[in-house]
Design brief:
Helices cover about 40% and strands about 10% of the residues. By secondary structure, it is of the alpha/beta class. A four-stranded mixed beta sheet has the order 1-2-3-4, with helices on both faces. It is globular, with a radius of gyration of 19 Å.
């Protein structure tokens, strides 16, 4: 697929309705796994789960977003407007943001479900669950014409399998790469011990979600943050 122009791939996806994801057949992939989870019908093994924050942010229509937030009665001026938009972009996945502006996406969003919701359900079933929110960008790994995107779905997994000897990392990207690789290694060696931060719903709650990447103007690789504050932005 690497030698096929991106425009051709996108055109084929639209023309033939190709979906790069699970095809629910209720045998190998269940259509409503969340219902089974809520009823405790799930294998109890430790989980490491997370999501990429702000993915696809460059595809959001600015005028639509501004209009949406201005309609909120709690927004009184431009400062309020800028603050709430920045907060949503920082703490929310783009699926949630798009879902607020396009009702047509509600079904897809319901099927996927925010990782924080799945993590909470898992924890309620006594499943040791570690949650992360990946917010680091990799503009230097994009073709020049797409570097404004900053990130994409599944970015952290792609980053995990890159080669440090041949990949043009920035210092920050390399630091996050090294840390995330260690996270996965520690979790695989001893899932019950976790990757280096508290489990969801543990005695440390709500400080139980790891933010991977810089937080606002603070340079960091990992910051353990308040999951309750994040979840409020996913409602």
């Amino acid at each position: 697929m690497r030698v096929v122009p991106a425009e051709n791939l996108i055109s084929a996806m639209r023309k033939y309705r190709i979906i790069f994801g699970s095809q629910f057949n209720n045998v190998t992939a269940l259509s409503k796994p969340s219902d089974l989870w809520r009823n405790g019908i799930v294998v109890r093994v430790p989980l490491l789960t997370g999501a990429v924050g702000q993915e696809g942010r460059g595809l959001v229509n600015d005028k639509t977003i501004v209009s949406l937030y201005r309609s909120d009665t709690r927004v009184n001026n431009d400062f309020d407007l800028a603050s709430v938009i920045d907060t949503d972009l920082l703490w929310s996945c783009v699926r949630f943001l798009l879902n607020r502006t396009s009702p047509k996406l509600e079904v897809a969003d319901e099927q996927a479900g925010p990782q924080s919701t799945l993590a909470s359900i898992a924890a309620s079933n006594n499943i040791s669950t570690r949650l992360y929110h990946f917010i680091s960008s990799i503009p230097n790994l994009f073709p020049k014409e797409y570097d404004w995107l900053g990130k994409f779905h599944g970015l952290e997994i792609v980053l995990l399998f890159t080669d440090p000897d041949t990949t043009p990392y920035t210092p920050q990207t390399y630091a996050v790469y090294e840390y995330f690789r260690g996270v996965v290694a520690r979790f695989l060696k001893n899932p019950s011990a976790g990757p280096g931060w508290p489990a969801v719903g543990s005695s440390y709650a709500p400080i139980d979600v790891a933010v991977l990447g810089d937080v606002v103007d603070t340079s960091s690789v990992k910051t353990v943050s308040n999951s309750t504050a994040m979840n409020e932005r996913h409602r």
